[in-house]
Amino acid sequence: MPSELGTILVVEDEAAIAETIVYALRSEGFKPIWKATGREALAVMTSETIALVVLDVGLPDTNGFELCRKLQIQGRVPVIFLTARDSEVDRIVGLEVGGDDYMAKPFSPRELTARVRAVLRRTKAGPGEYGKTANDAPWAHDAEKCRVSYQGHTLELTRNEYRLLAALLAQPGRVFNRDQLMNAAWDDPGAALDRTVDAHIKLLRAKLRAIVPGDDPIVTHRGLGYSLRET
Ligand code: CA
After folding, report:
1. Is 72 in contact with 28 (CB distance < 8 Å)?
2. Which CATH class is domain 7-123?
3. Cα of 35 to ligand 1 centre, how many Å?
């Protein structure tokens, strides 16, 4: 049964801490999913609609910062970091890593659930839209419905086209190389070819041109990759 308050992905390798968090979230009406590694966490992101991620910085197979970056490529999701070290706090507070809040260990589960609520309230300000894209007038991205509209027209996109565009939309102006786009949009990036990305960009451009003839909001950076024009 889907929780009304949303599904919270808890990525934490220490079972005792994870259990406390899961228990606290569940008793407040959230649906927690616990994963102990970055690899498992990424897999969940593709199969579930996650409202927020509680992310331990120190993980066995990756670090929380790196994982946070990967999570955002698939679409913007709010992140609360769990950290055991002051040096990590500096990076989080410096907003280098794109988290929405953090908690230093040890913390009380009650405090964490309060932060989860606060971040969800803050990030749900728009009507079903979130983050930068919510205010970028030409674009509207509904991540829950996997739908993007441009200049008020909903785009008919294939799965790969949608995921490609969602990655670009998550960070307008950022130049993504082909590998990054491949990882964002294909389940089995190893099997796809470099020119697959180019081919899909071409298809996307055609669909955008069909809405506004002559307009090309996707920018090619020769030898580097692609970005979405900042608005
Ligand atoms: Ca840890």
Report:
1. no
2. alpha beta
3. 12
